[in-house]
Amino acid sequence: MKHDTSQSLWQAANNVLVGGVNSPVRAFSAVGGDPFFAASGSGARVRDVDGNEYVDYVLSWGPLILGHAHPDVVHAIHNAASKGASFGIPTENEIRLAEKIIAHFPAMDKVRLVNSGTEASMSAIRLARGYTGRDLVVKIEGCYHGHVDGLLVKAGSGLLTLGTPTSPGIPESYAQCTLTVPFNNLEAAREVFEARGEDVACIIIEPVAGNMGLIPPGPGYLQGLRALTKDSGALLIFDEVMTGFRVAIGGAQMRYGVRPDLTILGKVIGGGLPVGAYGGKARIMEKLSPEGPVYQAGTLSGNPLATAAGLATLTILEEEGVFDGIEERMTVLTTGLHEIALETGIPLEVAQVGTMAGFFFNDHHVFDYNDATQSDTDRYAKFFRSMLNAGVYFAPSQFETFFFSTAHDQAAIDHTLDAARKTFKSL
Ligand code: KE4
After folding, report:
1. Is 21 in the pocket of ligand 1 (CB under 6 A)?
2. Which end of the chain is less crowded, N or C, counting CB atoms within 10 A of the terminal residue's CB?
3. Beta bridge mates, 55
């Protein structure tokens, strides 16, 4: 594959953009080599500036559940743009998108649209603190909720030890309000709530972890967190930025039958344009400005182009059989990958939940962050580069998830499995 144009753009990018990118994971640091530059996308495939084509399993990190440049989404954006890009005045589509979200997420009476998952997480936590009058936040080790100061925190030495920042620029005082517990460990969470429950404003979790690779919740885990928070008066926040409209059309809360107090959404609800959202019961949401005292605002929140793209996406996704079709076809791929690994004797832990999946080069069951970090990241990097050279683009990190769309047809699956057969032999 030729990469001359990508290479020259990469040089230019590094002159003016930090690390050549606008989001760190795009720099391919975890897998080596330099990123390609996207020129266009169509359906399941993305084409780079040198004309190389790849079956795309990153799909802009989840949003493109209808694939690239779906005609209905393109038309919706074009139609909205022809009437004006932004007003900063209420528009009807903000109502219609919120109505659709609430129809699929009955744990929400009201929604606030924002511009990113990070903004939604940050705002939901402020609302939880404002509603409960408490300061402590419990987060789950390995879960990611955007670059929120108080959540870029690693576990303290003990379960009950307040966190320490994982990034410079975050005051110790911020981390001192965050406790971190392991994923899938209800006992650890129980210990925190027994010791500090009355000070805990909320626990925030990716109900299916997607940012340490993909790790589903163990049996009863989410239900257990629901009970703990109910007893202590803390709010349960499901960060469904990735899992919303992905692990089920109603997200993890539909799939596992657990209703959180606040839900965070993003990605799919914007159809590829910048959207985040958070919502919950009216008694909580009414604390938010302008109804209540908890302040949050945004110039481009509910932007007409983004709401149009989101509405077009959800309208197709909720059509009879569309979501199930994606899930069923993705199972053909994940089953095929697992079979190839078995045939070649390469230990591969594969997990699929709905229309998202992950795999670890690991010979143990991966149950939490500690297990995930035991995976063979060098082997993942080799896998990634070999598959990329064969025209298949998986996430440029072992600790990410991959996604499917309505556009990933049998031809895309066959191409991927053929490439995997050759790749696994080289690992
Ligand atoms: P954004 O601020 O990037 O829109 O959303 C942050 C976020 C919040 N919650 C969850 C569960 C998320 O997965 C994310 C963002 N996901 C990453 C992929 N692991 C986005 C890719 C990137 O950072 O460039």
Report:
1. no
2. N
3. 45, 392
pTM of the model: 0.97
Q: Is position 324 annotated as part of the catalytic site?
A: no
Q: Count CB atoms within 10 A of the CB of residue 157.
A: 7
Supply the residue whose CA is at minimum distance from atom 8 of ligand 1.
Answer: 145
* 278 CA to centre of ligand 1 in angstroms: 14
Residue 295 known to be catalytic: no
Q: Please work out whether the CB of residue 131 comes within 6 Å of at least one atom of ligand 1.
A: no
For ligand 1, is residue 22 a contact (CB within 6 Å)? no
What domains, with CATH codes, occur in the chain?
4-69+320-426 (3.90.1150.10), 71-317 (3.40.640.10)
Q: Percentage of residues in the chain with pLDDT exceeding 90?
A: 94
What is the residue type of 95?
I
d(CA 395, CA 30): 10
Tokens in use for 56?
């795309």
Q: Which of 239, 261, 371, 376 is catalytic?
A: 239
For ligand 1, whether the C-beta of 23 sits within 6 Å is yes
* CA distance linking residue 235 with residue 159, whole number of Å: 20
Q: Is 267 a catalytic residue?
A: yes
Q: Which atom of ligand 1 is nearest to the CA of 211?
A: 19
Q: Ligand 1 atom 17: the closest Cα is on which residue?
A: 61
Cis peptide before 217 (omega within 30 of 0): no
Average pLDDT, integer, range 215-219: 98
How far apart, in Å, are the Cα atoms of 26 and each of 48, 50, 55, 240?
14, 18, 17, 22
For the Cβ of 261 lying below 6 angstroms from any atom of ligand 1, the answer is no
Scanning 257-365, the segments in alpha helix (DSSP H) are 282-285, 304-317, 322-344
Whole-number Å distance between alpha carbons of 157 and 171: 18
